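TL;DR need structure tokens for one chain.
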Amino acid sequence: MLKRALAVAGLTAAGVAIPLATAAPASASVGQCTGVVSSHGYIVGPGVVSACGWPHLIDIAGHAKPNAMCYTGLVSLKVKASIAKTACSWA
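>> reply
TL;DR here they are.
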């Protein structure tokens, strides 16, 4: 009986955690990512738009984390690392 209860609890937790880990907030977008870059004085060209096209990730707690592809793309275009991190959290 205890095994069954633990199995049900595990499946319930997984059913809640997986959608949280994969769902993106409706407000996050490429436009917001490029807007952050632009607001710091950088020119937004095709490279920035392409980098910002990589959507951010959501951790198990539901917090946005920058996508490594977005971040490295912006940094390779000479965007300051702290700005790239913020921008990619909005992608």
